[in-house]
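Dock nicotinamide-adenine-dinucleotide; give full complex structure.
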Amino acid sequence: MPERNQTRILLLVAGLGGAIGTTVAAAATLMQVRPEQVAPYLTTPVCAPDLPAPMAFQVAGWDTQPRPLVEALAKSAIVPGGIWREVRSGIEAVPLLSAPPVGAPLKVRVETLLTDIEELRRRWPHHRPVLANLLPAAVDPDLTACTTLEALLAHPDAGTLPDLAYVLAALKAGIPVINFTPNRVEIPPVAAMAAAAGVPLLGRDGKTGQTYFKVVLASALKARGLRVDGWYSLNILGNADGANLDDPGRAAGKLANKTRLLDEILGYPVADAQGRSTHKVRIDYYPPRGDAKEAWDAIDFSGLFDLPMSLRLDLQGRDSILAAPLVLDLARWSVALMQSGIAGPVSDLGFYFKKPVGDDPPITFAQQLAALDRLAERCRRSRP
Ligand SMILES: NC(=O)c1ccc[n+]([C@@H]2O[C@H](COP(=O)([O-])OP(=O)(O)OC[C@H]3O[C@@H](n4cnc5c(N)ncnc54)[C@H](O)[C@@H]3O)[C@@H](O)[C@H]2O)c1
């Protein structure tokens, strides 16, 4: 039986049972009864106040772990129980589906997910579906030989990146995709498929904490004519993402995304006299911290007469509390873009990502904000 007709976003989450997924489920459910606890922490009401997209969400998704969402929320304690207990029944009603078996061929996994998506769409026929990919960071398979979709589906290594099944199923179903993970799913045949299907592709690697402030500070140093001589960034975190990133193969993509953008913003390589990079980024798994990530930055820079100065930043953040509102924001952008006919990789959302997809993404903080303004204006102008 289709459920009641309300204009909402149907947010389909791959990895729903994880730290960000459960926080998103709690925030989206709370939004229905206490919008004042969630809405002020979104970016879209500020940077795109007239974005033609619903502010209400119905969440559903998949996970390999069948554990109920309320159990996962209680165990992780990312969102204090006193905040979500009031909407416990709403969270319990969020459909959590079994992920397709990882050993199955990619094509079969895509078909299984398409059946799930059809069923969810039947249940909420008036909602606007969006896929958010929140799977764990993975080792990047070499899929450069795959220039066509057929080649991708047949490639033996494509199955090692489970994200691809979700992304391909969403695109086949004409559903926009948010890739919040560092996993490189926006390979040429996928980007071409999104463009051909008229579906926006947003990504990659959400920019939530340290890297967000790195973009702001690097842009500020550049604008002030101060030269960066070195930048040391250390992260400690103790959640499942941190444990996963303890594997150097899985951390490689994230470290590259966190490192590359500094030189791009400044317009020169941050390096010593011998050309050796002096931009260091480390991520250490440190269990006592759980989701309460800490990030230090030691920034060495020089000014007039080449005289050295230094700056320290100590961010005591909360990984999923910073990430979840961005997922809701990106779902709103996805709906607005889709309705405006903006398809394929969307580079103008560089504000939200460490490694924005598409051509010529905005680089400095000012450029990223200006790009959001432009994009919001395009969406407003083509409002149906
Ligand atoms: N928290 C942040 O600030 C931040 C910032 C940028 C990027 N990210 C990325 O976002 C992603 C999610 O982060 P998280 O902290 O929620 O991770 P997490 O490990 O807590 O959650 C991932 C979830 O995916 C599930 N899963 C694994 N394989 C699956 C499959 N094949 N199908 C369905 N579900 C599957 C896991 O069981 C788990 O519940 C990670 O890739 C992380 O690197 C996080």
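Observed: The pocket of nicotinamide-adenine-dinucleotide is lined by residues 14-15, 17-21, 62-65, 99, 102, 134-137, 162, 180-182, 205-206, 208-209, 239-241, 244, 319-320, 322-323 (CB under 6 Å).
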